[in-house]
Design a protein that fits this description.
Blueprint: H1 2-29, H2 33-97, H3 103-115, H4 119-138, H5 149-166, H6 175-199, H7 205-216, H8 222-244, H9 253-281, H10 285-302
Helix pairs in contact: 2-5, 2-6, 2-9, 2-10, 3-4, 3-8, 4-5, 4-7, 6-9, 7-8
Length: 303
């Protein structure tokens, strides 16, 4: 009986030990509260350490981006200024050839003959009126940035006066010589237009009017609308010339040639000037982007 009692006690002790074993195992696998707190603290310290690095990298990238955009805009403005200079000398040659100027310059040229104001002054007045017409047509749709057409027109008008003063000695007498000067003027105007398109900063008033009318009549393409605007300018110039000068002056066969060939030549030149200009505008950008991407790595290395 004593032996049976001892055996029963041993069995009870073994069962108690077996029952307590899973509890001990579960307690060993679950992390303690102290371990959890330490892990969270380590994560927070890691985030705090990485935040200054990310902020420094983003700040550096933002500065580089702003510098790139400012540099690109300055290059575009310079490109536009060069185009305006070339275009002004083209207009000057067309006026000196006495065979008619380009459509956009036909009205200012006729006003120059009528009022004895300088070509630059009449150009500024006429183009400013075109900008006002755009505002009237578009009303709330008119974008304030398009007001930059006015200072561009002022610069172009002043350049026309400078070009005419430089070309004062160019006075062809023979008809064939007039055509040579007129053709040279057409080519220069086309080159100037190509530079303006490549710069992509702001349009001149004539193109701005065509774009405004395209917004009102979206079914008409820009090319056709531009031709319609040019024809309107030529008709207005011809009427003013006949009424006030009693003859066609400033609007002749050279005007028709300019209306046909300036756009065609500029379109061919755009295939060269636009890619070259884009490479020039983005010159150094790739190198700066590489430097920006290495800012974060260098910051990590310092830490």
């Amino acid at each position: 009986m004593v032996e049976n009692g001892e055996q029963n006690n041993q069995l009870e002790n073994e069962e108690a030990t077996t029952a307590d074993l899973p509890v001990a195992q579960n307690q060993s696998t679950e992390p303690s509260a102290a371990d959890t707190t330490k892990h969270v603290s380590d994560c927070e310290n890691g985030n705090e350490a990485s935040d200054p690095i990310n902020a420094q990298a983003e700040k550096s990238q933002r500065k580089i981006y702003i510098k790139q955009k400012v540099s690109e805009y300055i290059k575009r403005c310079i490109f536009l200024a060069v185009g305006l200079v070339i275009m002004s000398f083209g207009v000057g040659l067309s006026i000196q050839a006495s065979l008619g100027t380009s459509p956009i310059s036909s009205v200012p040229t006729v006003l120059y003959y009528i009022t004895n104001l300088s070509v630059g002054t009449t150009t500024i007045i006429f183009n400013t009126l075109i900008v006002i017409l755009q505002i009237i047509l578009l009303r709330r749709k008119f974008r304030p940035v398009q007001l930059l057409q006015i200072p561009v027109c002022i610069v172009f008008g002043l350049l026309c006066d400078v070009a005419l003063s430089c070309l004062g000695g160019v006075t062809p007498q023979e008809y064939w010589a007039q055509w040579l000067i007129c053709i040279a003027g057409i080519v220069l105007v086309a080159v100037g237009v190509s530079f303006e398109v490549a710069a992509n900063v702001i349009t001149l008033a004539g193109e701005g009017l065509a774009l405004s009318l395209c917004k009102l009549f979206p079914k008409i393409k820009f090319g056709y609308m531009k031709v319609m605007c040019d024809c309107s300018f030529v008709i207005i110039a011809a009427i003013l010339s006949l009424v006030f000068l009693h003859k066609l002056q400033g609007v002749r066969e050279g005007t028709i040639a300019a209306a046909i060939f300036v756009g065609l030549i500029a379109k061919q030149l755009n295939k060269i000037t636009v890619p070259v200009a884009n490479k020039l505008f983005t010159l150094g950008t790739k190198h700066k982007n590489v430097n920006a991407s290495s800012v974060k790595e260098s910051a990590k290395a310092d830490n």
